[in-house]
Structures are given as structure tokens and as C-alpha cells.
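User: Can you recover a sequence for this backbone? Please restate the input before giving your answer.

Assistant: Of course. Working from this structure:
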């Protein structure tokens, strides 16, 4: 699949471009130890750094990046971003805007004095026919001071303007700079056709295969990674 990103010509060499998830693994993952001593197990055990599903999820799809530094403090968001003249009169110029709290009233996101921000988009995204775009909080990134609100957009049809990404500002104690290039949304194409759910009782052969694989997993580490994991091809 080709995923086509477009922006105002005046911004083409200004904006940070969306990047594959594999290109933005956080520093804490790079620095964390692959094994740690466990009081429960009385031995060293593998950390999530050696868990392929954990890491592969973070490498999935592509990331939309914050286009400029945003300073946060005392409940205020400020930025100093000089943009050239743009070719479209309704195009945003601010990196973020805001929603009123009433828009999430009755949801688990709502709490007293919640700040509902909206990351404005400067790229349009076009997908192949019959595919939609799933946008989620950057996967396993609980370190970020906001939580993106998940959404799906039919980007094979809706691609003439950018997608904006709403989020709840979750870290009320955060004070400092959210730097340019911070991942704000992790996105990946999903088929719009609903899957068919099939349910079966295991056959004798499937039960034997279950026990065989389970015994291999219990006997030694790395079975999934070495024998079943598909090699990721990165751009």
C-alpha cells in the first residue's frame, strides 16, 4: 500500500514528516535492561525489551509528529512558530487548538478542569480504496503527558484536508517544553470490510500441536521470536 502525505507547498521543507514507528522507539526502551532480577522468581528474568509483541506494536504503522516546540506551564500552552504565507485561507497556523470540556462530558476522559487539546494536522493522508486510518495514542508511551483519543477516519475518501487529533492533557504537573518531533499519534491502515468470526472446537491434531508448542515455550525462551515472528521490513 502507498500512503500519500501532502501539505501546503510553503511548508514542504518546514514540517517534520510522518515517520515509521520503527524510527521513533523511545530512549527509555533503548536504555532499559534486557533482564532484571526478580524476587518472585529468584532469578533474572527477561523484560519487555525482549518481548517481540510489545516492541513490534510500537514499531507498527507511522507516527505524526509535533511540528514545533510547545511550552506548557501554569495551565497555558504557548509557542513561537513563524510560518510563511500559506496558500489556503482556512489552513491552520497553530500547532494545537482546544475543545471545551463539555465535548467529553459523560466519558471516562472527563474529570475536573480537564484540558482537551487538539493537535492540528498539517499533512493530509490518502489511503488506497476501502481502507481507513486508525489513529491511537503512541503505543506503550505512558511517558507522554497527554492521552490521544482513538479515532478511525475513512482516509480513502476524506483526504483533502488534514486530520486533527484530540487528546486529554493528563499530566497536570507537567511544566516545560513538549519538543518539536514529539510523536502525537500512531496511525495505521485498517480494512473497512468486517471480518467473519469463526468458532471451532479443537481437533485432536490441533490439541497435539497446542501441547507441542506450549512445551517448547516452557522449555526455553525465544520460541516465538525465533520460529514464528515475521521479520519486519522498515522503510
Amino acid at each position: 500500500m502507498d500512503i500519500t502525505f501532502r501539505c501546503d507547498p510553503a511548508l514542504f521543507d518546514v514540517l517534520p514528516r510522518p515517520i515509521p514507528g520503527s524510527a521513533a522507539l523511545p530512549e527509555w526502551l533503548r536504555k532499559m535492561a534486557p533482564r532484571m532480577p526478580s524476587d518472585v522468581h529468584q532469578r533474572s528474568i527477561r523484560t519487555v525489551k525482549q518481548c517481540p509483541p510489545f516492541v513490534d506494536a510500537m514499531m507498527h504503522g507511522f507516527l505524526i509528529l509535533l511540528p514545533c516546540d510547545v511550552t506548557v506551564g501554569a495551565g497555558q500552552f504557548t509557542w513561537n512558530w513563524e510560518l510563511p504565507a500559506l496558500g489556503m485561507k482556512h489552513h491552520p497556523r497553530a500547532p494545537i487548538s482546544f475543545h471545551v470540556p463539555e465535548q467529553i462530558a459523560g466519558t471516562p476522559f472527563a474529570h475536573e478542569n480537564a484540558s482537551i487539546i487538539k493537535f492540528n494536522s498539517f499533512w493530509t493522508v490518502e489511503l488506497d480504496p476501502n481502507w481507513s486510518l486508525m489513529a491511537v495514542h503512541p503505543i506503550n508511551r505512558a511517558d507522554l503527558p497527554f492521552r490521544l483519543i482513538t479515532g478511525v477516519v475513512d482516509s480513502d475518501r476524506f483526504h483533502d484536508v488534514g486530520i486533527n487529533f484530540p487528546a486529554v492533557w493528563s499530566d497536570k504537573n507537567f511544566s516545560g517544553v513538549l519538543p518539536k518531533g514529539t510523536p502525537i499519534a500512531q496511525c495505521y491502515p485498517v480494512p473497512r470490510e468486517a471480518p467473519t468470526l469463526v468458532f471451532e472446537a479443537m481437533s485432536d491434531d490441533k490439541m497435539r500441536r497446542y501441547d507441542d508448542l506450549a512445551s517448547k515455550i516452557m522449555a526455553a525462551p525465544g520460541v516465538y521470536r525465533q520460529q514464528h515472528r515475521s521479520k519486519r521490513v522498515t522503510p
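That completes the design. The radius of gyration is 22 Å.
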